User: Fold this.
Amino acid sequence: MRIGVVTFPGSLDEVDAARAVRLAGGEAVALWHGDDDLHGVDAVVLPGGFSYGDYLRCGAIARFAPVMRSVIRWAGPPESASPGLPVLGICNGFQVLCESHLLPGALVRNDHRKFVCRDQRLRIERNNTRWTSRYGDGEEIVVPLKNGEGGFVADVPTLDHLESEGRVVARYLGGNPNGSYRDIAGVSNATGTVVGLMPHPEHAVEEGFGPDRDAAGRLTNTDGLRFFTSVLEGVLTA
Assistant:
């Protein structure tokens, strides 16, 4: 299956995301911010980084890139009952999805005003999205987190709506790293096809390069890989 990975000016993690797609068994297709043709991909990943230098607001300029016109059109309205193109926004990609109104809320500067970079414990709260179906309900995982503007915020009615609809995808465990309301690390649209996640699953997909160490000191964590195997499985069965 063909998974598009978008490169914006200032993207940092598109190579990691493409590698994650390949390790999951998919074909990674490079998509350019200035091209509105999605080249027939089955899903899209918006990677982390600093799109357009994070000028104005993180993701605010990327939202108007030609490629995003197509992503927005094919992903469909956020409250639609009809599933559209699966899209995963990671870190800056999550910010782009919120700026594009494909997901509710916004990402703001960390409440401690410092950049955070650490291996982060998460609990998967929704495992019936196109990106999390390979996880157990309530499963705890560890993936890297790195952001300066990662605090998820929304008004109380929006937060209550997300909670009541079961659209909180993941929550932080072991302390809130950035002041996100209700410890929210990721959310989805109504159908679970569009997911935004502040931590970086693409950095925990291969033994020897992810978080955690075994008794011999070897890096062993591949907790992030199932975000990518989930969407491939979903595309094959759709």
